[in-house]
TrEMBL record:
Annotated PROSITE patterns: ABC_TRANSPORTER_1 (PS00211), ABC_TRANSPORTER_2 (PS50893)
Protein's recorded name: Peptide/nickel transport system ATP-binding protein
Domain ABC transporter: 19-259
UniProt superkingdom: Bacteria
High-level lineage: Bacteria, Bacillati, Actinomycetota, Actinomycetes, Micrococcales
Organism: Herbiconiux ginsengi
UniProt cross-references to SMART domains, sorted A to Z: AAA (SM00382)
UniProt GO molecular function: ATP binding; ATP hydrolysis activity
Amino acid sequence: MSATTGAPPVADTDTDEMVTVRDLDVSFGATRVLHGVSMSIAAGKTVGVVGESGSGKSTLAKVLVGTVRPENGQVTVDTIDVTRISHSQRGAFAYRRRVQMIPQDPFSSLSPRRTIGQTLAEALDPLHARVRRYSETIAFWLERVGLSADMMARYPHEFSGGQRQRVAIARSLIVEPSFVIADEITSALDVSVQAQILELLAEIKDSLGVTMMFISHNLAVVQNVSDEVVVMYRGEVVESGPVAEIYADPKHWYTRTLLDADPGAPGFTLDL
């Protein structure tokens, strides 16, 4: 069977690691976006990836979901060598079920012409997105994220920002993925709604045992939801390790700068 249409290439990797990134390089034209990035995520754990805009967080996420191909390095997700996977294999439904991304802006990612039920049915079965056929599963997941089953007949504009983010979480988890990437999912929400979404995400993750990458510029948020943290600066990983260790004793100056700028951190100051 050809590489284009066959099964995705399987990598020889540690079975305890759901995600492994080794010496990853990515450039867009003459601009180097990622340089020598290495990290790993153990199965069932959450790793927070932090850094300011332009640090390479979102590009790393796009490599993991297979929409950006790296120049060098190896990326393994759920035993699949993403760097060797073909374009057709990256787009195949089987791979997309394994790896899901919860977007930053759920409103733009939800079709305004489709009901929530139709959106979730399409996630389950892109070719035959029939709400009636999957109504029980859709109802279960809507209730799982704190919405009611009768909401499946509504359209995105009828929901608040927090409710739309709950729909986005349901859409990502309804296919029972192995790995989920949450990309700045609370940045557009007010503080009270942020707390509700983070609590929901943590509860669901723990109950399902899903492996997760949580991308954020907010260190306080990352601290609350992550087991480990990876700090990125200008396309490189400058520090990584268990959350408690990094927050208690950061080694790199950039990590210290981020922590000192965080209102929830001990070193934060505000000159008036």
